[in-house]
Specification:
The protein is an alpha+beta fold. Among the domains are: 271 residues, 2-Layer Sandwich (Beta-Lactamase), CATH 3.30.450; 251 residues, Methyl-accepting chemotaxis protein (Helix Hairpins), CATH 1.10.287. Helix content is 69%, strand content 10%. It contains 11 helices and 12 strands. Strands 1, 2, 3, 4, 5, 6 and 7 form a 7-stranded antiparallel β-sheet that branches. A 5-stranded antiparallel β-sheet has the order 9-8-12-11-10, sandwiched between helices. It is flat.
């Protein structure tokens, strides 16, 4: 294989060198022809009269054209900015004016409408309770005026109050208070009644509902009404709930007060109406409403106004806080003096008010209850950001419109200005570009650099265009010729370099192959010597293996005899074990017979004892029988003793037999185990005999193979010597090819230096 490879490498190296040399010669010839053909080709260029050129602007002066273009651009910018500013300002003004007018009208109307409609629910609920109080008074007036008092006693009136309280869950108490002896003149009869009269006997039942729902009655504290009529700092008297309707002859809604309801202090407001008969006030009837109910009502209304973001207060006629959605704990307290002073006149006169501040909007709406002079008010505080959301959006719209307007004008001005400068720059550059290019090109050509890549790109006609076209044509043809020549030289240089590299690689490869062949020769000689030694060792191994084979066969025969002996011993041990098992069975049978004999002797002894007892009873007639019975008993005793001795001997014999049986079994198991191991050893020894025979045959085959290897080594050595001669010839050819390539590269470098005088 190595011989074929070296011959192929030699042929490839020679053919590659010839091909490269031929290619380089052809490229050099073409290069000379191209250089000769490019001499003075520019002589064919002729001057022709240029066509008439149409100018962009009908001005001969370039500066005039630039001035006109600049003026037009700036004028367009000014006009665009002015028009945009007027239009945008007009639109923004109209949009802002309309939005402000519409929003203010809509905001005021919508706020009053929405809040008033929600607050009306509070007014309606409290007015309904006034109607309940008036119905109680009307019922009493009808009964009294029609002289039905004698048929309807005080207890019946009291049960009527209970019925009213039971049917109206929103109220916490119902009551009637007659003036002393004003109706039935029976106060003395009901003194300390405990249900509807106190120690004075005055009729004043007060039904209340506990938190558990239980209804109870007690007399009202009328002495507190009559004995303390001095108003406090807020103008209220302790008995205001009774005195107000009694004195005004109209229904009254009192300020919240704490009353005891079945032992529990409860904050309530009293709604009372006068009991008038024959134009004379003879008492008062009314209902109590828990402030907690009003507080809940206020929260419900507040949640329905702008989703509960505001604060709603219900204020009484005298400035007491009836309900507060933000601070429920302030219910029953009076407002701050300064705050109350600012709204007192509006509350007591029932006038609404809207006060707008920077943070909140304050809406004050009256609660004008029906059939009463009492006036309450609802104060609603709304965050300006919520109530004036549309106004905020409008303000944002105005700001955005203004910003957009300003930015639009600025952007438009910038765009127009940039457009003007771009126009000026484009026109000026377009007019001066061909002149500058022509001048620069002529200047460069006058130098020794020879830059052939330059071109004049003209968009105008005139003489400059004709001159530029002629120069471009000359430069194009010269540039193409120089470029083709340079490409040919480069290709020639590359071919020479490749040929030189190939020669160098061939030389290195040949030297490497030569060294490898020398090493292979040495290795083959060593292999031949080693093969002879292996042959000698193989012959000795074959003799040793044959001797071992004969010895192993003798061991195999002896092992077969041993296996037969072990088999015979195992059979005898099995038979002996069988006999010992039978002996054990016989011993157990004898033990059973002895047990029967022992039982018979015990029964005989018992019979003899009974016979002796019967003989003793018979006296002299039974004496002879007693002697016989005694002998029988002695014989039974001796039989029993003999049986026990035999039983002991049989027990000892049984134990010995069991030991012997166990020993025989263990001996049998050992023999069988040894028999198995002997069989395994016999099988392994037979394998050893076969493998020893195989080793002997292999040793003979190795010796024969080594003899053939020695012959092949000798033939390989002769072939390697012939290859060394061929390698020397290839190395000589490669050295000559490398020398010729170096000379060709030197010539190509000279041509390249001359071409580099031009830029292409």
């Amino acid at each position: 294989m190595k011989t074929m490879y070296l011959r192929s490498a030699e042929k490839n190296a020679v053919s590659s060198s010839k091909f490269l040399l031929a290619s380089i010669k052809k490229q050099t010839k073409d290069l000379v022809l191209k250089v000769d053909s490019t001499k003075y080709q520019t002589d064919a260029l002729t001057y022709t009269k240029p066509p008439k050129v149409a100018y962009v602007f009908q001005f001969k002066s370039i500066s005039t054209q630039i001035t006109v273009a600049t003026g037009i651009s700036l004028l367009g910018a000014i006009l665009a900015m002015g028009i945009y500013g007027v239009v945008a300002s007009t639109v923004l003004y109209d949009t802002t004016s309309k939005s402000i007018i519409n929003h203010n009208e809509h905001m005021v109307a919508e706020a009053l409408k929405q809040v008033s409609s929600k607050v009306e629910r509070i007014n309606q609920d409290i007015s309904n309770n006034i109607i309940i109080a008036k119905n109680i008074a009307s019922t009493q007036s009808f009964i009294i005026q029609n002289d039905l008092v004698e048929t309807i006693d005080r207890d019946t009136f009291s049960q009527y109050l209970k019925h009213i309280l039971s049917d109206n869950q929103q109220i916490s108490g119902t009551y009637i208070a007659w003036e002393p002896n004003a109706v039935d003149n029976n106060d003395a009869k009901y003194i300390n009644d405990g249900r509807h009269s106190d120690s004075s006997g005055q009729y004043a039942p007060y039904w209340t509902r506990a938190s558990s729902g239980e209804l109870n009655v007690r007399p009202s504290n009328m002495p507190l009404v009559y004995n303390n009529r001095k108003p406090n700092e807020h103008g209220l008297r302790p008995g205001e709930w009774y005195l107000c309707p009694f004195e005004s002859r109209k229904s009254c809604v009192s300020d919240p007060s704490v009353w005891e309801v079945q032992g529990v202090p409860t904050l309530m407001t009293s709604i009372t109406t006068p009991l008038i008969v024959n134009e004379q006030v003879i008492g008062v009837s009314g209902v109590d409403v828990s402030v907690a109910f009003i507080q809940q009502l206020a929260s419900t209304v507040n949640d329905a106004i702008f989703e509960g973001v505001g604060t709603l207060k219900i204020i009484s006629f005298n400035g007491a806080i009836v309900a507060d959605t933000s601070h429920p704990e302030q219910a029953g307290l009076f407002m701050d003096k300064n705050e109350w002073a600012s709204i007192k006149s509006n509350v007591q006169s029932g006038i609404s008010r809207i006060k707008m501040a920077s943070d909140n909007i304050e809406v004050l709406l009256p609660l004008n209850f029906a059939n009463t002079d009492t006036k309450w008010s609802v104060k609603l505080l709304l965050p300006t950001s919520v109530a004036m959301q549309d106004a905020s959006n409008l303000n944002l719209l105005i700001n955005e419109s203004f910003t957009t307007n300003v930015l639009g004008q600025l952007f438009a001005g910038i765009l127009v200005g940039l457009a003007g400068f771009l126009v000026v720059y484009f026109v000026a550059g377009k007019l001066s570009r061909p002149i500058k290019k022509a001048a620069y090109l002529v200047s460069e050509l006058s130098k020794s650099d020879g830059d052939l890549t330059q071109r004049i790109d003209l968009e105008y006609g005139a003489e400059i265009g004709v001159m530029a076209d002629g120069l471009n044509s000359f430069l194009h043809k010269t540039h193409q010729t120089i470029k083709d020549t340079s490409d040919s030289v480069n290709k020639m240089t590359e071919s020479a370099e490749k040929s030189s590299q190939l020669s160098e690689k061939t030389n290195k490869s040949v030297n490497s192959q030569k060294n490898e062949l020398s090493q292979a020769t040495t290795a083959i000689l060593q292999l031949s010597q080693t093969a002879q030694q292996v042959a000698q060792k193989s012959e000795q191994t074959a003799k040793s293996v044959d001797s071992a084979y004969q010895k192993v066969k003798i061991c195999a025969h002896e092992l077969d005899d041993t296996v037969d002996s072990l088999q015979e011993l195992t059979d005898k041990m099995r038979n002996t074990a069988h006999d010992m098992n039978q002996l054990e069975s016989s011993t157990q049978s004898i033990s059973g017979i002895l047990a029967v004999i022992k039982e018979i002797s015990e029964q005989t002894n018992l019979l003899a004892l009974n016979a002796a007892i019967e003989a003793a009873r018979a006296g002299e007639q039974g004496r002879g029988f007693a002697v016989v019975a005694n002998e029988v008993r002695n014989l039974a005793n001796r039989t029993q003793e003999s049986t026990e001795e035999i039983n002991k001997l049989m027990h000892s014999l049984t134990v010995s037999a069991e030991v012997a049986v166990k020993t025989m079994r263990e001996g049998t198991d050992t023999c069988e185990h040894n028999m198995q191991r002997a069989n395994i050893s016999q099988t392994q020894l037979q394998e050893i005999v076969r493998e020893t025979q195989d080793i002997s045959n292999a040793s003979v085959a190795i010796a024969e193979a080594i003899e053939q290897q020695t012959l092949v080594s000798t033939e390989i050595t002769n072939n390697i010597n012939n290859l060394n001669l061929a390698v020397d010839k290839v190395s000589s050819y490669a050295s000559k090819g490398k020398q010729q390539n170096e000379e060709l590269e030197q010539r190509a470098d000279d041509i390249r230096l001359k071409l580099h005088q031009f830029k292409f």
